[in-house]
Automatic annotation (TrEMBL), chain A:
Descriptive protein name: Transporter
InterPro entries: Brnchd-chn_aa_trnsp_permease
Residues passing through the membrane, by range: 22-46, 66-89, 137-159, 171-191, 197-230
Family assignment from sequence similarity: Belongs to the AzlC family.
Native source organism of the sequence: Paracoccus acridae
TrEMBL record, chain B:
Name of the protein this chain belongs to: AzlD domain-containing protein
InterPro entries per the UniProt record, alphabetical: Brnchd-chn_aa_trnsp_AzlD (IPR008407)
Keyword tags: Membrane, Transmembrane, Transmembrane helix
Transmembrane segments: 6-23, 35-54, 60-82
Pfam families assigned: AzlD (PF05437)
């Protein structure tokens, strides 16, 4: 193997490890959420293997929580699919925003795309805030960190959800605050004087949707603020 | 039928995530991004932050855990002011919530 090839492998390995490290807060936040999904799935008769399968195929907290609720209430399958697909459409925006700002070849981008959840998007985007262009290995490491936590959390929840949560309710509550705290940090990093007014407007629109009882519209409504960019001078 | 629903939603989610990421548009990709696309990321991020934090705050208020919530927010904000590291903020937020819930 040539020195250049060794160096390339070394770069990829260190990039992937840095991505894994960047994904640690997402892992911390995902585990209890996936745990809760696994426990809920077990409570309506879904086996641990099936729950992990659903997590692997859908890999979407919003869709999986909706699925469990829909099964429990006997919703028709066609309606479940229609709503589930509608819930997924927001992800289109993430790729549009990121593709100009990140590196990586088709292989690493395909894996990263599979793992492009809300939190992974936010972490990758905040990485680009100072002009850094994350490599494919970094993106794959980040996506793998989040995905592995989601699958192991689902399995743990399905196998031992009720008992563990009852024994450590306080710790479970505290761990569930990891994602809100992570988002506080990610938004903080992205604030700039140039974007502040639009970000405040986006936050106001999202808050209005939540307070008016339509939380599913909060993210698309916030995105609308971006279309005012460039109209003010 | 359940697995058909899981598969269809899973494929739709995968395509929504993947296709815009892989779709390259040559010269247009090299051109300067329009202003709305520059702003879309921060706006999405802010909306997500509100969508995660606000319901958590409302739930804390209604379940008597407001002090724990404020402790978590204060610890995360302090970590950001100190090191500007979102990962550290997540850990500090959990610790802040845990400590404040015991007061």
């Amino acid at each position: 193997m040539t020195d250049a090839a060794c160096e390339q492998i070394g770069d990829r390995t260190s990039g992937a490890l840095a991505g894994l490290r960047a994904g640690f807060p997402v892992m911390l936040g995902y585990f209890p959420v996936a745990f809760a999904f696994g426990a809920s799935a077990a409570a309506i008769g879904i086996t641990s293997g099936q729950a992990a399968g659903i997590s692997a195929v859908m890999y979407s907290g919003a869709n999986q929580a909706f699925l469990i609720g829909a099964i429990a209430t006997g919703m028709p399958v066609a309606l479940i699919v229609l709503i589930g697909v509608a819930l997924s459409l927001r992800h289109i925006l993430y790729g549009i925003v990121l593709r100009r700002r990140i590196g990586g070849g088709p292989g690493s981008l395909t894996f990263f795309g599979y793992g492009l959840t809300d939190e992974v998007f936010a972490t990758a985007l905040s990485r680009t805030a100072d002009g850094t262009r994350p490599s494919g290995a970094w993106l794959a490491g980040l996506a793998f960190a989040a995905w592995s936590s989601w699958i192991t959390g689902t399995l743990a929840g399905a196998l031992a959800g009720g008992a563990l949560r009852a024994a450590n309710a306080g710790l479970a509550d505290a761990l569930e605050f990891a994602l809100p705290a992570l988002f506080l940090g990610l938004v903080w990093v992205s604030v700039s004087r140039r974007m502040l007014a639009l970000m405040l407007l986006a936050g106001g629109l999202a808050a209005s949707c939540i307070l008016l009882g339509a939380p599913q519209l909060a993210i698309p409504a916030g995105a609308l603020a971006a279309f005012l960019a460039g109209r003010r001078t | 039928m359940l697995w058909l629903a899981v598969a269809l939603i899973g494929v739709a989610t995968l395509l929504a995530r993947l296709l815009p990421l892989l779709w390259r548009n040559g010269a247009k990709d090299q051109a300067r991004a329009p202003a709305w696309l520059d702003a879309l990321g921060p706006c999405l991020l802010t909306a997500m932050g509100v969508a995660v934090l606000l319901p958590e705050g409302i739930e804390a208020l209604t379940t008597g855990q407001l002090l724990a919530f404020l402790g978590g927010v204060a610890a995360a904000a302090a970590a950001m002011a100190w090191r500007r590291d979102p990962g550290l903020a997540a850990i500090a937020g959990v610790a802040g919530w845990w400590l404040a819930s015991g007061i």
